[in-house]
Amino acid sequence: QVLLRVSGVKILRVNVEQKMDKQLKSRRRSVDYNELFYLIDYKIRIKKSYLNPSLSLKDVCLMVGTNRTYASRAVATRYKNFQSYLSIIRLESLLDEFFSSELFYKDWEETEELALRHGFQSRRSLDRAMIKEMGVTFSKMIRLRESGAKREFFQ
Predict the structure, then answer these.
(1) Nearest to 145 by CA among 113, 104, 88
(2) If 0-12 CB within 10 Å is exposed, 13-18 middle and 19+ buried, where does residue 87 land?
(3) What is the pLDDT of residue 150?
(4) What string of DSSP letters covers the chain?
(5) What band does 27 get if pLDDT is binned at 50, 70 and 90?
(6) pLDDT digits (tens, 9 = 90+) for 119-128
(7) What is the rounded distance in angstroms from the CA atom of residue 39 to the CA atom of residue 60?
């Protein structure tokens, strides 16, 4: 450690080698992204946080006690990104209810309510997620179900 005097004020200068050692040690800390992903997945599914349409990566970081970079990388080990991951969880939940129910959700209000109940911001955002992840709209899925398609068809 060296003391410097700059314009009459004493400044404590940290040894550069010590500072570099600290930076290298912090970089060496390895993060098990698979383990972190399982923790994130567990918290989101158990607390059913995915039902909140405004759930963000920041909220998830607060839940599991990590930062955005680590959380984002952990999710990216399995999915394209955080939003894609949420969409898939929400779709799984919606499809489970849809195929276990006797209702066919024919009118717009029923399907809008179903979308909102499963964390989508609207029926339109549900359709976008379905097209992206499954290649069909909700209306098309209703028609397929009416013609006898089972839940397994949409895996």
Answers:
(1) 104
(2) buried
(3) 64
(4) -EEEEETTEEEEEPPHHHHHHHHHHHHH----HHHHHHHHHHHHHHTTGGG-TT--HHHHHHHHT--HHHHHHHHHTTSSSHHHHHHHHHHHHHHHHHHHSS----SHHHHHHHHHHTT-SSHHHHHHHHHHHHSS-HHHHHHHHHTT--GGGG-
(5) low
(6) 999 999 999 9
(7) 10
pTM: 0.73
- Short-list 140, 80, 129, 60, CA closest to 105: 140
Cβ proximity of 134 and 94 under 8 Å: no
